[in-house]
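Appendix B, example 12.
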Amino acid sequence: MTYNAIIFDFNGTLLWDMDLHKEVWRDLVRRKAGTDFTEDEWIHGFVGRTNDEIWPRVLGRTLSPQESEELSEEKEVAYRDLLTAQPDRVRLVDGAQELFELCLSHNIAIAIATAAGQTNKEFYVETFDLHRWFDPHHIVYDDGTLPGKPHPALFSTAMKRLQAVPARSIVIEDGILGIQAARAAGAGKVYGMASTDDEVRKLSTVRLERILRSFYEVTLDDFE
């Protein structure tokens, strides 16, 4: 096959939850900074960036590592509470598990590259039994050593751990910064994942090989 590796973003791609992140961030920004953010600021200033990158922008100052960690975990606890209060939403996007199985059965390497922090990563692993499909080393997350998107580090690290050639790798992303990061990492194909018609319109403004509405749309033909 021409393409023998696929790397997934998580939030907004494997799990449709970006509206929940947005709701929690909006509440915190209003309470902590007394301000709000526009849709453009959300797309380019939040989605795909790490919490350590977001908080100084929100508060307009440098934070100590402890303060950043405390604020970040406050945000993530609120997000996880909001998600788990809606059990019908605690599910991977349609076709995700089937695609994982398809890839593994055809020796197509799979990885996750997410700006989520450690506590969220651990929550996702436990909640969705991710180690059933993903080697722990192949779940790349914000461990404090990698910059967020649009820097290519998360995707480049995933490719290196898979021993994958970037040009023979597919990345699936929902965020504009994530798409930029995938391109910068040299991905051979970049697919957009859209949960709504508005997301389709947003993704239509950037170069993508495909826009998906579920993972059932990805078949072996995509890897040829």
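The chain has nine helices and six strands. The CA atoms of residues 46 and 54 lie 6 Å apart.
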